[in-house]
Every structure is written in structure tokens, then in C-alpha cells.
Amino acid sequence: MDLTFSIIIFLLQIFIGMLFAVLSVYLSLRFFDKMTEGIDEIKELKKGNIAVAVIIASLMLSIGTIIQQGVNQFDNILLRGVSLPLFIIAFVMAMFQLAVVILVAVLVIYVAIRVLDSMTVGINELEEIKKGNVAVALIVAAVIYLVSFVVAGAMTGLNELSVFNPETVAALLGM
Question: Core-most of 33, 92, 142, 144, by most CB within 10 Å?
Fold first, then answer.
């Protein structure tokens, strides 16, 4: 791989990393907003509600952890040293793969929160978090983060699927 191409790949990796870091923050805030219809997170943060801050922080860290794994897969696809057409296919596929990873991250965290909610009969986690109950927030945050670690580990195998192999896609396209 020549120096110019290596520098382009490096800059592309930095740009994609920054883009998805910002996307992680945005998704976390949107996800929390949709998940908690009765809580105005910005208002709660202004009031100093630590429980809300803990949950939002755990969502940011969790979604970022899962997306980071997707960005690593993105690197694996792009660093194969291929021709320009194959590079373009690999880039498009990497973006698709990241979209899949983001979707899985949000879905799995949502399911984990719902499972925790069904297991803790008698505790309305969202009401407790709105009241500022840090103990409940820490348990919910731990579940969110635990799930993100497991999902991020599972995402390492995503790159092995033939659907994410640029050569396979190029062959299907007749290239």
C-alpha cells in the first residue's frame, strides 16, 4: 500500500471515528428521550438529577462501545489493500455494517431495559430515576453496560459473514 493511500485511509478512519462518536451521543440522547416519555432529560440534568445523568452516561458509553466494535470492523474491511472498485464496495459495505451494528446496539439495550423492568416487580425504574434514585439508576446503568460488552464481543464475528466480504459482493455484481 503506498503512502498516499495509507494517509487517506488514516484520515478516513479518524473522520469515521469522530462521526460515529458524535452519532453515539446523539443516539443516546434520542434513545433516552424515546424510552422515557415522562422525563424531560435536559430539565432533569439542569436540576442536578444524578440518576438521569448516570443513565444517559451509561447509554453513551454503551452505544459507543458497540459502535466502536463496528468501527474496528470498518477498519478490517478497508485495510485489505484492494483495487479502487473493490475499495468502493468495501467502503459501502462497511457503512452498511456500521448501520447494522447501531441498530443492534439500540435494539439490544432497549430489550435489556425491558427485561430488567419485568424482573423487578414493584419498582418502576423510570419513576425512580425521575425522582433521582441513584441506586436504581446504577443498577439500570450496569445492565445497559453489561449488555453492551456482550454485544460488542459478539460483533467481532460480523466481519466473518460472507455478506460483508467485498470480494463476494464484487463477484455477485459481476466485477
Answer: 144
